[in-house]
Design a protein that fits this description.
The termini are far apart. About 35% of the residues are buried. Helix content is about 70%, strand content about 0%.
């Protein structure tokens, strides 16, 4: 009976991944819904523990779907000003799905998949040089959950550690910290061979660019606005401005790393 249940779970999962990998939005939405339902089911999710070869396919397919939605969301919006694009909403759902999976199965995900996922996650928290809180937060929490597994911490390379620490400081300080910390160890991230669907898209969304852009806007606001009322944050956290959920999570992650 267990083998039958495992087989059924495998078929359901493969079918959901096939839909999510589709070129049509309707197929991707159906695949996303199917994966969300799959990982809500304790029986099917437990069966995945015995199907290790599916882990790379699961995360590769989710990341590819995320990049499709990201390219769509990067286009000029067609709806009313201030409205959220449907592609961005799907990005947020995919980011939450990654966190859900990692939260339940961090210790079961192979090390190679974890390394690729952390690097990809670090590079895809922004859109049009803006850090997306609703995308960034679940992805940060996913990394935090991965690092809660001692196995993944022990096998994390120095280069990955430097990049994650840099990311946390970027989010906390809203400053372009990357050039000061990691350039000596990594001569240009754009030349790396990590998993990505579109190199130009990925490089555009580097988190240090996004945080630097936001810092400049904060500085302009502080220069011309009421500093006593809002606090001079200099783009980061001040005593008068409470930290965002993203910054709180970044601080939690930084504590794990340090």
């Amino acid at each position: 009976n267990l083998l039958i249940l495992m087989s059924n779970a495998s078929k359901r999962l493969r079918a959901a991944l096939s839909l999510l990998d589709g070129s049509k939005i309707t197929d991707r939405k159906a695949g996303l819904n199917a994966l969300q339902d799959f990982f809500k089911s304790k029986l099917d999710a437990r069966s995945l523990e015995y199907i290790e070869e599916l882990w790379p396919q699961v995360f590769d397919t989710i990341r590819d779907a995320f990049m499709k939605e990201k390219r769509s969301a990067a286009k000029p919006p067609k709806g009313p000003s201030g409205s959220t694009s449907p592609a961005l909403i799907r990005m947020e759902s995919l980011a939450k799905l990654i966190h859900t999976i990692v939260n339940k199965y961090a210790s079961h995900v192979p090390r190679k998949v974890v390394t690729d996922l952390m690097e990809w996650t670090r590079k895809n928290m922004a859109l049009r040089n803006e850090v997306l809180d609703d995308v960034c937060l679940p992805l940060l929490r996913a990394i935090d959950d991965l690092l809660s597994s001692r196995l993944h911490v022990e096998y994390m390379g120095d280069d990955t550690w430097v990049k994650l620490v840099t990311m946390c400081f970027n989010l906390l300080l809203k400053d372009q910290f990357n050039s000061k910390l990691s350039d000596s160890l990594d001569e240009g991230l754009e030349n790396s061979s990590e998993h990505t669907t579109d190199d130009s898209d990925s490089s555009l969304m580097e988190i240090d660019q996004a945080t630097s852009s936001q810092k400049r806007r904060h500085e302009q606001q502080n220069r011309y606005g009421d500093r006593n009322k809002y606090g001079d944050t200099r783009g980061g956290i001040s005593k008068k401005t409470p930290p965002t959920n993203v910054q709180v999570t970044a601080m939690s992650l930084l504590r794990r790393l340090l």
